[in-house]
Write a structure and sequence with these properties.
Blueprint lengths: L4 E3 L2 E3 L7 E4 L2 E14 L2 E14 L4 H8 L16 H11 L3 E4 L8 E2 L2 E6 L4 E3 L5 E3 H9 L9 E4 L7 E2 L4 E3 L11 H10 L4 H15 L7 H4 L14 E2 L5 E5 L2 E5 L20 E2 L2 E6 L3 H4 L2 H14 L3 E2 L8 E3 L7 H14 L6 E6 L6 H12 L2 E6 H4 L4 H14 L6 E2 L3 H4 L10 E9 L10 E8 L8 E8 L9 H16 L5 E7 L6 H16 L8 E8 L27 E3 L9 E6 L11 E8 L5 H11 L14 H17 L5 H6 L20 H4 L6
Parallel strand pairs: 17-19, 18-20, 18-21, 21-22, 24-27, 27-28
Antiparallel strand pairs: 1-2, 2-4, 3-4, 4-5, 6-7, 6-13, 8-11, 9-10, 11-12, 14-29, 15-16, 15-23, 24-25, 25-26, 28-31, 29-30, 30-31
Length: about 700
C-alpha cells in the first residue's frame, strides 16, 4: 500500500474504506496492524484491522468551525474577533498542526507554532527589501487577495523569525494523527466504525494478507527470502467450565451455575451474597425541570423496594429532605463543598451514602467525587434524570448492586472456595492476597500532569472478593510504580487487621505493561513488594507476578469446516475459551483467555503472562483461577473480560485522575493547552488523602 499513512506498526489507507467524519475536525480511518512475533510455531505474522483518528484535511476556517463550538458560525461572521480565552483555545487546537498555503503554488509544508498577538488587520512586517507592509496590503498587492477575516490573528509558521499567514489561506495537511481527547460522541462513532462481527473482521484480515502478498514481483518478502502463508493459523482451544456461584436467599445460601451460552445470570429470585445496611442516606439534585423533580419520590421508593428484593437494606426515607440545586452549583467548588458539609453535619457526620441526580453529564462530577471522598468522607452514587424518567427494572438493579458493593456488601461469591478448587496450592488456614496494579498517564498533548497509579488488594479469605485501594500520583509518564513498597505495606497492614494474619501467598496482577518493559517492571516492582514484606521479621510470602495485556491484536475465530461457513462463523468464541499452544511464547508461561461473551464486534481475548511464580502454578490451575475470578466482579451479573484485581485497579486509577481534574484550576488548564518543549519532570503534585470513612470501602466502583 504505497499511499498508506504509517502510524506506529499500523498502516492506514482509503483503500480500506473512506475516512468518516466523527465531528470536532477529526475523521476516522481504517487500516491494518502488522508485527512479527516469536511463537511456539516459529516466527508469526500478526495482522489485524486497526482504526485511528486523523485531523480532517480542510481549510483552517472550516476546521475551526468544527473543532471549536464557539466558532461554528464563523463563516457568516467575518468581522468576529476572539476573546482572550477563545484565542487560547484556538491556539491549543492548531498548535503543531502541519498546513499548506493555497494563495500560491508550492509543495512546502509548515508547522503552526502559534498565533500572532495582533489581529490580521493590525499586523505589519518588514519584507526582505526593508519595506514595511501591513499584512492585508501585502496579500492584496502580491496575490490580489482581499483578506476577509481581518479580526482574527494570523498563524505564526516560522519558529526563529516572524512568518505570518492569514488563517483563510491555510489548509490542514492530510494524514496527521489526531491527538486531541475524543468526546463521548466521537468515541461512540469510532467504536461503531471498528465494530465488525467475527466473519466480517476475518474477511478483512484475509483480504489484507492476500493483497499484500499477491504481487510477487519486487516484493519485500522475496528480497528477504521470506515465505508468508496466506492462511490463518489453525489451533485447538479449550473451553473452561464456569464455576458454581454463591448468592443469598433470605438469609440462606443459594448456589447457581451460569449455564446460558453467554454465562450471564440474573437475580430475579435471589439476594446478593451479602447485603449492606444503609440507614443514613441523602439525595441531592443538580439541575432538572420541575417535571424531573417530581420523579424523585417515586425513584426513592422504587430503589428502596428493589434493594429490599435483593437483600440490601436501604432506609425508605432519606435522613434529610431531598435537596434541589441548580446545575451551575457544580461550577463553584467552594459552595458545592459547603452544601455537602451541611448535609453531613445534619446527621452528625454519620451519612453513609449520598445519591446525586444530575440533569446531564457535567465536568463538575470530578469535583463532586473529590470533595465527597477526600473532604466530607461519604460514598456517592451518581445517576442522570433521563434514567429516572424510565426507572427500568434493570437500571434499579444495576444501581442497587453498585451501592451495595460501595457500602461494604458483596454481590456474588464462589460457592466452592478457592482452597476447594485448587487444594494443591490454597488452604483455608493460609490466606492469600490478590493484588492488582495499573498506571494511567495524562493525555498525549499534556506534557506536565503527573501519572496516577492505583494498587488494590483483596481483604477477605477465602472469598477474595472485597478489594480496597491505594492511589498515588507519580512522575509524568513513568510506567514503573514509584511508591509500590509503601502502598503494598499499607495494604498488608489492612489485610492483617481484617484477616488476623499476613497472607501466605500474594498473587500480583499488573496491567498496562508492554513486552519491552517486562524485565524492568519485574525487577523493580517485585523488589518493591519484597521490601514491603521485609518490614515484618521473618515474613517471606510466595509471590506470583502476572502481567495482564488487553491492548494487543490477537483475535480468535471459529474454524471453518471444509472451507465453508458454519453456524458459529459469525459468533464470538464462547466465555472460557483458553489458548496456551501454537501462538503463545516459545519458552515462557503465557496464555490467552476469552472470559466474557462479546455481544458486539469481535471479542479480544486477554493475554496473561506469568513472569514470576514462586507458587508453582500449573497452567490449568492458573487458567481456571483467573477464569473463576472473572465471575466475582461486583458491578455485573456475568463474567468480565479482565481479571477483577486489574479491573478494580483501573477504576481506582481513573478515580485518582478525577481528583486532579479540578474545574477551578485555571492555572492547570493553561499549562496543558498544547505540547510543550520537553522539560525536566517536576515533582508530581500529591493526590488529596481519602477520609478514613471511605478508604476501606470499594468507593471507586
Amino acid at each position: 500500500m504505497e499511499s498508506s499513512i504509517p502510524v506506529g506498526r499500523s498502516l492506514y489507507s482509503r483503500s480500506m474504506g473512506e475516512a468518516k467524519e466523527i465531528g470536532g475536525g477529526a475523521v476516522g480511518l481504517r487500516g491494518f496492524f502488522q508485527s512479527l512475533k516469536p511463537t511456539k510455531q516459529g516466527l508469526a505474522l500478526n495482522v489485524d484491522l486497526s482504526l485511528t483518528t486523523f485531523h480532517e484535511s480542510t481549510g483552517i476556517i472550516a476546521y475551526l468551525q468544527k473543532r471549536c463550538d464557539f466558532l461554528k458560525d464563523l463563516s457568516q461572521m467575518k468581522t468576529r474577533a476572539l476573546a482572550e480565552d477563545e484565542r487560547r483555545e484556538v491556539e491549543k487546537a492548531l498548535k503543531n498542526i502541519r498546513i499548506f498555503v493555497c494563495h500560491r503554488k508550492t509543495d512546502q509544508r509548515y508547522h503552526v507554532h502559534g498565533l500572532t498577538e495582533e489581529t490580521t488587520e493590525n499586523l505589519k512586517f518588514r519584507d526582505r527589501s526593508g519595506k514595511n507592509y501591513m499584512v492585508v496590503d501585502y496579500f492584496k498587492e502580491h496575490y490580489n487577495h482581499d483578506i476577509k477575516f481581518r479580526n482574527l490573528p494570523c498563524l505564526q509558521i516560522g519558529r526563529s523569525k516572524p512568518c505570518y499567514v492569514p488563517m483563510e489561506l491555510c489548509v490542514v495537511c492530510e494524514g496527521q494523527k489526531f491527538l486531541g481527547k475524543l468526546s463521548d460522541e466521537q468515541t461512540s462513532k469510532m467504536l461503531k466504525m471498528g465494530c465488525q462481527r467475527p466473519s466480517e473482521r476475518k474477511g478483512i484480515i484475509k483480504g489484507v494478507v492476500e493483497g499484500a502478498f499477491a504481487a510477487r514481483s519486487n516484493s519485500y518478502a522475496d528480497q528477504f527470502n521470506l515465505q508468508v502463508s496466506k492462511d490463518m493459523t489453525q489451533l485447538l482451544g479449550r473451553v473452561l467450565f464456569p464455576p458454581k456461584l454463591k448468592l443469598g436467599n433470605g438469609g440462606r445460601i443459594k448456589d447457581i451455575t451460569p449455564d446460558r451460552f453467554d454465562r450471564q445470570w440474573n437475580l430475579l429470585d435471589s439476594h446478593v451474597a451479602e447485603g449492606s445496611k444503609i440507614k443514613n442516606w441523602a439525595l441531592i439534585s443538580f439541575g432538572g425541570t420541575p417535571e424531573h423533580h417530581s420523579f424523585v419520590p417515586k425513584f426513592i421508593n422504587q430503589l428502596s423496594n428493589r434493594c429490599e428484593q435483593l437483600g440490601i437494606l436501604l432506609n425508605k426515607k432519606t435522613v434529610v429532605s431531598p435537596l434541589f440545586e441548580r446545575i451551575q452549583l457544580l461550577n463553584n467548588v467552594s459552595i458545592l463543598e459547603s452544601k455537602l458539609k451541611k448535609i453531613q453535619e445534619a446527621v452528625s457526620g454519620n451519612l453513609q451514602l449520598l445519591i446525586c441526580v444530575m440533569e446531564r453529564k457535567h465536568r463538575g462530577y470530578a469535583d463532586l467525587k473529590r470533595i465527597a471522598e477526600t473532604s466530607i468522607g461519604v460514598v456517592t452514587q451518581c445517576c442522570l434524570y433521563p434514567n429516572l424518567s424510565k426507572l427500568t427494572f434493570q437500571f434499579l438493579a444495576n444501581l442497587a448492586l453498585k451501592i451495595n458493593v460501595k457500602l461494604g456488601g458483596c454481590n456474588v461469591g464462589l460457592y466452592n472456595s478457592l482452597p476447594c478448587q485448587i487444594p494443591r496450592i490454597f488452604s483455608d488456614e493460609e490466606p492469600v492476597m490478590f493484588m492488582g496494579a495499573d498506571v494511567t498517564h495524562p493525555h498525549p498533548l499534556d506534557d506536565l500532569s503527573p501519572s496516577v497509579v492505583a494498587v488494590v488488594a483483596s481483604m477477605n479469605w477465602p472469598s477474595a472478593n472485597k478489594y480496597i485501594s491505594r492511589m498515588r500520583s507519580q512522575t509524568h509518564r513513568k510506567e514503573i510504580i514509584e511508591c509500590l513498597d509503601v502502598m503494598t505495606g499499607e495494604l498488608l497492614e489492612e489485610f492483617l487487621k481484617e484477616v488476623g494474619k499476613l497472607p501466605r501467598r500474594i498473587i500480583f496482577f499488573r496491567d498496562g505493561v508492554s513486552e519491552t518493559q517486562f524485565y524492568k517492571v519485574l525487577k523493580e516492582e517485585l523488589h518493591a513488594v519484597h521490601m514491603a514484606c521485609s518490614r515484618y521479621p521473618g515474613y517471606k510470602p510466595s509471590i506470583t507476578f502476572v502481567v495482564v495485556q488487553k491492548r494487543h491484536h490477537t483475535r480468535l475465530f471459529h474454524r471453518e469446516k471444509n472451507g465453508g461457513l458454519t453456524h458459529y462463523s459469525d459468533q464470538n468464541v464462547p466465555p472460557g475459551t483458553v489458548v496456551d499452544t501454537v501462538i503463545t511464547h516459545p519458552r515462557e508461561f503465557d496464555f490467552y483467555l476469552c472470559s466474557h461473551w462479546g455481544t458486539k464486534g469481535t471479542s479480544r481475548p486477554t493475554h496473561y503472562h506469568v513472569l514470576w511464580d514462586e507458587n508453582n502454578f500449573q497452567s490449568d490451575e492458573m487458567q481456571q483461577l483467573v477464569y473463576n475470578l472473572c465471575y466475582t466482579f461486583a458491578r455485573c451479573t456475568g463474567p468480565v473480560s479482565l481479571v477483577p484485581p486489574v479491573y478494580y485497579a483501573h477504576l481506582a486509577a481513573y478515580r485518582g485522575r478525577l481528583y486532579l481534574d479540578r474545574s477551578d484550576s485555571a492555572a492547570i488548564s493553561r499549562t496543558t493547552l498544547y505540547r510543550a518543549t520537553p522539560m525536566q519532570s517536576a515533582p508530581a503534585a500529591p493526590l488529596p488523602k481519602l477520609r478514613d470513612s471511605v478508604k476501606r470501602l470499594m468507593f471507586y466502583c
